[in-house]
Amino acid sequence: MFSRFKKDSPAGTSTPQGGTAPVTQAVDKAAFRNNAPVQPAAQQRVAAEAVAADKEKKRKERLTELKVEIHKRLLEDLNLSALESASEQQLKGEIAALASEALDDMSVALNKEDRLALNQELYDEVMGLGPLEPLLKDETINDILVNGPKRIFIERAGKLQLSDVTFRDERHLLRIIDKIVSAVGRRVDESNPYCDARLQDGSRFNCMIPPIAVDGSLVSIRKFKKDKLKIEDLVRFGAFTEEMAAYLQAAVSCRLNIIVSGGTGSGKTTTLNALSSFIDNHERVLTIEDTAELQLQQVHVGRMESRPANVEGKGAVTQRDCLRNALRMRPDRIIVGETRGEEVIDMLQAMNTGHDGSMTTIHANNPRDAISRLENMVAMAGIEMPLKAVRSQIASAVNLMVQASRLQDGTRRMTSVTEITGMEGEVISMQEVFRFERLGVEPSGKIIGRFNATGIRSAYSDRFRQWGFDLPASIYEPIV
Ligand SMILES: Nc1ncnc2c1ncn2[C@@H]1O[C@H](COP(=O)(O)OP(=O)(O)OP(=O)(O)O)[C@@H](O)[C@H]1O
Ligand SMILES: [Mg+2]
Q1: Nearest residue CA, atom 4 of ligand 1?
Q2: Where are the alpha helices (DSSP H) in 88-230?
Q3: Beta strand pairing call for 152-156 and 159-162
Q4: Ligand 1 centroid – CA 380 distance (Å)
Q5: What is the CATH T-level fold of the domain 231-476, as seen in this structure?
Q6: Structural fold of domain 129-225
Q7: Which residues line ligand 1 (CB under 6 A)?
Q8: pTM above 0.85, yes or no
Q9: pLDDT tens for residues 370-423?
């Protein structure tokens, strides 16, 4: 019957002995016995809710058990090589048919809702990433963080929460991890227990398996957004104001070198991506990333992705390698997704030597901190240079720092726009032009605040004007 998908061997005829017996829904009947003491209404309601929750839990357990058993059979019965050429519709049909056959064999009857849920989970298991599938499909989720098989956290609207999705056990989780990393030609095992990868949909993936991960495998997924947030979206979401956007447009168009600094998940890449939309369409832009996330809209974009060493420790191509090569590729601008190591030297040099308008992000909590990070990275790269020389290199390379922050209430905001104006003695001088001022906290936890100008006029005002960006003086005037 399932000639195209079913293996030739007559599998699936024998009923699995000792397999999944239908799980009886052991509702706590004691509560309904005649001699049970009469309870007040509230107590009865609580008891009824507990019974319902217990019933739902048992239903899920039952579905999981059935899924395990039928999945085992599907792997035996399905002709996996034929799956590749089949359409999603055909596959779903075949899986549903095989599942229904297996349910008949096991003498299990399911209602329509459960059957559909089971079929979907089986499809996700065979063709996709199992329990992660529904989370990957949910567009409101930004991050998926797996702490062992039973704890999967998700981030929605800047807030982390525990999801009700779980893996069956560590082996199940490891199987899915293996599926992901082998799809990109990598491996994780005892000797190589962690790995970066990109999911088929472009999402950024990192995993670490036991024994390095102590309580079960750790997985972090930054979901790929097909429609990256644009400047207008960020203004609408309150990440910054229209005035700030006008200033940033001038800064990018006038080819200032910009560093977006911020903590983890604060919106650095999103900001960088949005800023890049101000780049002129005629310019040749080269992007360098560890995991390609940026989506530039310009016509003339060359994307590079670094590569770790293979199992024999060979073949690594670092961001620094890409950057050095990029300099020979006639770029108008270079964008490095995140500067985190030795590539800092080449980045600063590129910014200093004719590749104005380059941009990158850096992990730091405020603009001063970002400067220290740059200094540290230069030192760690083994460059023996007096601190003052490093600082003057930074001061002449970087023009502008924008700080991205994720606040306690989950909102992401550009909390500071700071210009670098030169050196004063041994210190890099900076001036903040815009900032987010916190005014208080609502009882709900929502942060009350506003964006404000500091009253300092941009040090690049003349340049802006020369390039045709006549920003009104009023945008620099603070609200008091
Ligand atoms: N202003 C914003 N409003 C709402 N969501 C945002 C905003 N900025 C970023 N996001 C979302 O937050 C998530 C994290 O953003 P992003 O990847 O830019 O952070 P990041 O600082 O680069 O993170 P990492 O440190 O992991 O590289 C993304 O899903 C993004 O779509
Ligand atoms: Mg990022």
Answers
A1: 412
A2: 88-105, 112-127, 132-137, 170-183
A3: antiparallel
A4: 28
A5: Rossmann fold (3.40.50)
A6: Beta-Lactamase (3.30.450)
A7: 142, 222, 225, 229, 234, 237, 239, 262, 264-270, 412
A8: no
A9: 999 999 999 998 888 899 999 999 999 999 999 999 999 999 999 999 999 999
